[in-house]
Amino acid sequence: SYVSGTTSYIYLSYYDHGLDQIKFRIGSVGGSSANDIGLGLQDLNKKTSRDTGSDDNGKIGYGSSKVFDSVDSRYVGDKGNAYKNVRVISSGNEASADVAVASLNNGTAVVAYYTGKELKIQYAPFSSINSNNASSATWTTKSVSSKGGKNVAMVADAAGSLHFAYSSNSGADLYYTYMSSLTATPVTMLVDSYDNVGSYCTIDVGRTTSTSSQWIPYITYKRDASEVA
Questions:
Q1: What are the φ/ψ torsions at residue 49 (nearest 5 degrees)?
Q2: Nearest Cα to 168, choosing from 143, 193, 185?
Q3: H or E element at residue 127
């Protein structure tokens, strides 16, 4: 998420199994009122209470192409126009459930995803995705690692650097990649290759002092039947 003034912006990236696509969504909470919900974050059938599945003949969550791509105002959150807050990041052979999202300290949205051969990112500046126009925002694609990308987890530190944990193309090894900036050359290292490791990755970072320029990655992952950190 990213906070600007009194508004919190929520970034979401996920795999749409029905359409075989990786999608990015942006929503907002706050603003003039703490209860303001914008940019399509509220329930897609414009409900403000719990959706029991009976609304709109139970189609919410069923016809995903209709829900996310329709111009019908019933499916576009609180905007009443085309659902511009959804961006298709990848589709077909380059789409899978191996996806992660992060926000840099300036609000830039970053989506990491596994293409089946390598780890890539797509990123867009905050000004480009904040104007109800994420679908046609200026997105840039960059290759991060040819070692793999399965089970990818990603985190951005306070300095605007990116940290990735993921398993190899074979799913047998755990890798870590560091990018000091979006334009920097990625630095990749092998973390663990004992048995089949790297599934269910999580990653976080910390530093020994608040002024330290060195960030320490903390990675958890699964090794066969055991969990390690």
A1: -115, 180
A2: 193
A3: helix 126-129
| Rounded-to-integer distance, Cα 219 and Cα 199, Å | 11
> Considering only CA atoms, which of 172, 220, 12, 177 is closest in space to residue 103?
12
**Residue 66 belongs to what H/E stretch?**
helix 64-69
- Sequence-ordered strand ranges (E) for the chain: 2-4, 7-16, 21-30, 37-38, 86-91, 99-103, 109-114, 119-124, 140-145, 148-156, 162-168, 174-179, 187-192, 197-206, 216-223, 226-228
Neighbours of 103 (CB within 10 A): 18
Q: Which amino acid is at 11?
A: Y
Q: Read off the pLDDT of residues 158-178 as tens digits, 9 standing for 90 and up.
A: 999 999 999 998 878 999 999
Is the pTM above the cut of 0.90?
A: no
pLDDT (tens digit per residue) in 13-61: 999 888 888 988 887 777 666 555 565 554 444 444 444 444 444 444 3
